[in-house]
Structure formats: structure tokens, C-alpha cells
Amino acid sequence: MKTKIYFAAIILMTCVMHSKAQFVTFDPSNLVQSIVNTTNQVVETSTTAANMVKNFKETVKLYEQGKKYYDALKSVNNLVKDAKKVQQTVLMVGEISDLYVTSFQKMLTDKNYTVEELGAIAFGYTKLLEQSGDLLVELKTVVSSNGLSMTDKERLDVIDRTYNAVKRNRNLVNYYTKKNIAVSYLRSQRTGDTDRVMALYGTSDEKYW
Q1: CA 23 to CA 78: how far, in whole Å?
Q2: pLDDT of 3 higher than 80
Q3: Positive or negative, the Cα torsion across 84, 90, 92, 95?
Q4: Helix %, strand %, coil % for the chain, to 5?
């Protein structure tokens, strides 16, 4: 029975159903690393904010490809408890990617940040994203045939530990985003430009504020 649970989890980690009922292989940990690598290249090769906006389009493209996977994964229902926790862990990594790419795109158009600050902000995001990707690699090992030598308790412990660690990272990314936006807001108060910043990031009851 437990083996069936982990095979179900493997399916969650590797397959999604397209609208035409076709299954494709997809590795979210590879997507995370690709986003991190592309962002690092953007930061290293961009000398101006406008340059960074242009170069960041490749990262956005990768994220949009991954979003199709995460959206499809959300529709997978009727899972046993442990497989559902695997699903939720993968989806939280998707949330981290979404929060990073969506928020950073806005920051790239915000004149309250220098290009050096934008590079530092991107570095912080990618470190948290990379840590989460490493956790997915560990999770994938546990739910694959490589992890079948472990006891049921050992596998469940790793799933729980990974879930909690990714959840902490998701919350950290949310906090990090709000703190960075707060810097822009404080600067805009000094220049009388708060309306623009509020319009860019949203009001206090919205996601990024």
C-alpha cells in the first residue's frame, strides 16, 4: 500500500495532463535551476535597469512554461494524504517562483531602485528559490525507486521535513518581497511619489503589499 502511495507521488513529480489529455514529463527541480541560472546571467550582463528588463524576459519565459505545469498540478484531486503533501510541496515552490518573477518584474520598472540594488534583490530571491529546488531533488529521491530501501517512517519523515522547509522558504520570500517594496514606498514618501508606487504594487490589502 505504501509503495502505491509513493508511485502516486512520482506521478505528481513528473507528469501533468494537458488540455488534450496528453501527459508530458516535467521536472520542477530542473525548472528552478534554470530560472536561477538565467537570473544570474541577467544580473551579470546587465549594466542598466532597462538592460535588465530586456534580459529578464528569458527568465519570464521559463516561468510561464512552468506555470502551465503548476496550474495542471493544482487540478489533481483525490490523492492519499502523503501524496497530497508532496503535491503541496511542489506547488509551494511554484508559488515562490510566481512571487519572485511577478514582483521582480514590477521592481525592474521602479525608479526607486538602482541597478545594483536590483541585482542584490534578485540574488536574494534566487538563493531562496535554489534552496527550495534542492529540497525538491531530495523529495524526488524519496518518492522514486531509489528511496524504496527506506522504511515507511523514514520516507514520511523526509516528506514532512521537506514540506515544512519549503513552507518556511515560501513565507520568507513573501516577507522579503514586502520588505523590498517597503523600501520603495519609504523613498517615494520623501519624493511625493507614493501614488505611483501604490499603483505599481497594489494597496495594503493586496497580495504584494
Answers
A1: 18
A2: no
A3: negative
A4: 80, 5, 20
**What's phi and psi for 158, nearest 5 deg?**
-65, -40
Find, among 165, 164, 144, 206, the residue nearest to 13 by Cα: 144
Instruction: Please report which residue ranges of 46-151 form alpha helices under DSSP H.
Output: 49-55, 57-74, 81-108, 115-143
Q: Which residue has the cell 521535513?
A: 161
Say how far apart CA 183 and CA 185 lie, in whole Å: 5
Find the length of the chain.
209
In this predicted structure, what is the pLDDT of residue 17? 38
Mean pLDDT of 133-138: 92
Residues 189, 198: Cα–Cα separation, whole Å: 11
**Residue 72: all three cell numbers together:** 495542471
Which of 209, 189, 192 is CA-nearest to residue 200?
209
> CATH topology for 2-14+29-201?
Methane Monooxygenase Hydroxylase; Chain G, domain 1 (1.20.58)
**What are 94-112's pLDDT values in tens digits?**
999 999 999 999 999 999 9
**And the C-alpha cell for 6?**
509513493
Amino acid at 114: T
Residue 106 grid coordinates:
514590477
List phi, psi (to 5°) of 36: -65, -45
Question: Can you read off the three cell numbers belonging to residue 108?
Answer: 525592474
State how far the Cα of 82 lies from the Cα of 88, in Å rounded to an integer. Answer: 10
Pull the grid cell for residue 39.
Answer: 537570473
